[in-house]
Amino acid sequence: MSKLAGRRILVAEDEYLIAMELRQEVEKTGAEILGPTASIDETLHLLRTAGSVDAALLDINLGGEMAYPVADALLERGIPIIFISGFGREGISDKYATAPLLDKPVVMQRLHACLDGVLGS
């Protein structure tokens, strides 16, 4: 059984194919997926209503907007964030410098390593 089994992972990604790929890959570990969501409002609503969340995979640009309101809400709750970006760290505020970053296209081995790292698995 995977170390991620039973963990609740929020996925916020506005590119449908990437969101589905992330969902499928994380579900293979036995983790429960919350989402995927594709907008800031949808993600914040899910965060308010979903109960516990163990970690979040967050596209830094959701629907053309920087996802900082989501990142701030996650940090306020002590939920670790793994950012996803097609542009590297460029444009990501220094406030989030310690959060891991997955570049698009996402390398699945790196995804697993990042999840293990933020969850202490």
From TrEMBL:
Key words, A-Z: Phosphoprotein
Key word Phosphoprotein present: yes
Ranges for domain Response regulatory: 8-119
Keyword Translocase: no
Stored Pfam families: Response_reg
Modified residues (4-aspartylphosphate): 59
InterPro entries reported for this sequence: CheY-like_superfamily, Sig_transdc_resp-reg_receiver
Superkingdom as given in the UniProt entry: Bacteria
Biological process (GO), any one: phosphorelay signal transduction system
Protein name: CheY-like chemotaxis protein
Organism of this sequence: Dichotomicrobium thermohalophilum
